[in-house]
Design goal:
- The chain has 568 residues and is of the alpha+beta class.
- It folds into four domains: 5-64 and 98-116, no CATH class; 151-289, Sulfite Reductase Hemoprotein, domain 1, CATH 3.30.413; 291-347, no CATH class; 363-549, Sulfite Reductase Hemoprotein, domain 1.
- It has 19 helices and 20 strands.
- The chain has helices at residues 5-8, 12-19, 22-25, 39-46, 73-86, 108-116, 151-161, 231-245, 256-263, 265-276, 317-329, 379-382, 388-393, 459-473, 478-484, 491-504, 516-521, 527-535, 537-549, and strands spanning 50-53, 56-64, 89-92, 98-103, 177-180, 184-185, 194-201, 204-211, 220-227, 285-286, 289-290, 296-298, 304-308, 333-336, 342-347, 363-365, 398-401, 415-425, 428-436, 448-455.
- The strands form five sheets. Strands 5, 7, 8, 9 and 10 form a five-stranded mixed β-sheet that branches.
- A hairpin with a 5-residue loop joins strand 12 and strand 13 (304-308).
- The chain is globular.
């Protein structure tokens, strides 16, 4: 489906900003009729954390920003009471925040005011064209490898932009910021528009700057080093430069990534210099290195941290209360990680009384079709189709998105999955794309699509084949397997190889030192091998898919206007 130009150039957002700043619109919220909203109201409300769609006009969602993920036991318990009182659904987000779903029109203002009255929490700038929640490592300040505690810096950044009339809702598009002062990195922080990664320059610990990340791209080195006291000023300059010079013609092309793509990194740095007005230093030596974390970790002060597993971000009010009470009783902090898990830090010993949930804590999943009008799948449910135990055993990161918008960060994971709709497999109408190739620890490259269409019922088997191959490779972790094995081959060959493994049942190994043609020959004289040699690996994969799953042809997925998609 081809969209008309007016769908690509959504200038109405810019018209609203020009007519009335969101900050100046805000006083209207107290007298707003939430049962009869205009389009402009829906746009402005997003700047204050309230989401409502014309497709589901009777239901509202409230998003809560939790700077650095530090929600606190008392706040968390109070939110649980509100969820229970109003029969809501609570989701933890991949930006260390909270979403409350199922709010009715007559409860919106009450919940909005209650949340914004909580110490350290806010709903402002959690949707729309804003500076989103600033994220960091859940062990920030307490982990054994922490060199610089990021949270005081995050608080100062928050104070600069949080209720700034010139910034609230006024940016070309959203901007996400991540920062870590930890040496050990296990998180896809290079997915942020602006990322400050621990580094060292001339004996000083500080941060290297990376810019241009988003759900589908990794931040690129800016060749800039900033000291601990310089971060807030530099981040402010980036935001101001983006607001002043960012592209606004097409919303699809308005992120910081596109500004860098359009002007080039050096010109964008010149724009930032206009707002920063002091010299900066060239990049230092990155101090980030990979480490795998378990459910229990010993902290630098001798206490312990515990990762409480959620159901892919879903957590019941009774669980929230239990966790909050446990933390209060043991004097522990409660934090939300960007992996949608809860962290209790400062426990006196490593023994906890919680039953461990089977859901893999290494899977980040988007909200899914129950809570998002753009998602094709019930992601929280379909995630259970994955081989949970093996993902946990090897700490394999999975990003699971319900559409190509990528809220599950499928391009920033060891294995990325995107749920799709098609009807090429008989009565089944669900298939998936699988993405591989991401090297996220150092921000080298995002994942790219490898398996173009896999039936839902085959997802477990195909992911299991990938894990089998990783185990046989002898690589230290899946990211190393990606770098040293998978990324030695073109995506079309990797798809062919694993589909041929699936069809043939043969134990052919993916040897990175062998030519693709020799590896393909290992599957014998099967017809699709001849196709691979004469017409290419993509055509051979099409042939295997037809043979395996009885499709007349390979599914072609076209994204459509959400208002015209099939009902859930």
């Amino acid at each position: 489906m081809m969209y008309a130009p007016e769908h690509l150039t959504e200038k109405r957002y810019e018209k609203y900003k020009a007519a009335l700043r969101p900050y100046d619109w805000f006083p209207q919220i107290e007298t707003l009729d939430f049962e009869s909203l205009a389009e402009s109201d829906r746009v402005y409300l997003q700047d204050f954390g309230i989401f409502n769609s014309e497709l589901e006009e009777e239901s509202f969602m409230l998003r809560v920003r939790v700077p650095g993920g530090r929600v606190g036991a008392e706040n968390f318990a109070e939110i649980a009471e509100l969820v229970e009182l109003h029969d809501l659904t609570l989701l933890l987000t991949a930006r260390s925040g909270i979403q409350l779903h199922g709010i009715e029109a007559d409860n919106v203002l009450e919940l909005f005011n209650r949340i914004n009255a909580m110490a350290g929490l806010s709903t402002w700038q959690t949707f729309g064209d804003n500076v989103r929640n600033v994220v960091t490592d859940p062990f920030d300040g307490r982990g054994s490898s922490c060199e610089i505690e990021a949270f005081p810096i995050i608080e100062k950044m928050h104070d600069v932009f949080h209720k700034n009339p010139e910034l609230v809702g006024m940016l070309p598009r959203r901007i996400s910021i991540g920062i870590t002062g930890m040496r050990e990195n296990s998180w896809p922080l290079f997915s942020n528009d602006l990322f400050f990664g621990l580094a060292e320059k001339d004996g000083e610990k500080g941060f290297n700057v990376y810019m241009g990340g988003k759900n589908t791209e990794v931040s690129q080195p800016a060749d800039i080093f900033v000291g601990e006291e310089e971060v807030v000023g530099f981040a402010t300059a980036v935001i101001e430069a983006f607001n002043r010079y960012g592209l606004r013609e097409k919303r699809m092309k308005s992120r910081l990534f596109h500004m860098i793509e359009h002007y080039g990194m050096e010109q964008v740095k010149d724009f930032i210099a206009e707002c920063y007005e002091k010299p900066w230093r060239t990049a230092g030596k990155s101090l980030l290195h990979k480490r795998h974390f378990g459910d229990t970790e010993k902290l630098r002060d001798g206490t312990y941290g515990y990762r409480y597993r959620t159901d892919y971000g879903l957590i019941r009010p009774d669980e929230v209360k239990k966790v909050s009470e446990y933390a209060t009783r043991h004097g522990a902090e409660v934090r939300i990680g960007i992996d949608q898990q809860l962290y209790l830090l400062g426990l006196p010993d490593e023994t906890v009384s919680f039953t461990v949930r089977e859901a893999s804590p290494t899977v980040v999943a988007c909200a899914g079709s129950e809570y998002c009008p753009f998602s094709y799948w019930s992601i929280k449910e379909e995630a259970h189709y994955l081989p949970q135990e093996r993902l946990v055993e090897h700490d394999i990161k999975v990003g699971f998105s319900g559409c190509m918008k990528g809220c599950g960060r499928h391009k920033h994971a060891d294995i990325g999955i995107v749920g799709l709709r098609n009807s090429k497999y008989g009565k089944e109408d669900k298939s998936a794309r699988i993405f591989l190739g991401c090297e996220y620890t150092e921000g080298k490259r995002p994942a790219e699509v490898v398996f173009r269409t896999i039936p839902l019922r085959e997802m477990n088997r195909m992911v299991t084949l990938l894990i089998d191959e990783y185990e046989a490779s002898g690589q230290e972790d899946f990211e190393a397997f990606t770098s040293n094995v998978l990324n030695r081959f073109h995506e079309s060959f990797v798809e062919f190889f694993f589909l041929a493994r699936r069809e043939s049942g043969l134990d052919v190994r993916l040897d990175p030192d062998m030519a693709p043609e020799k590896l393909a020959a290992g599957f014998g004289k099967r017809p699709y091998v001849k196709v691979a040699m004469t017409e290419g690996y993509a055509k051979a994969s099409d042939a295997i898919i037809r043979q395996l799953w009885h499709a007349e042809d390979v599914a072609v997925v076209r994204h459509v206007d959400p208002s015209k998609r099939r009902s859930r």
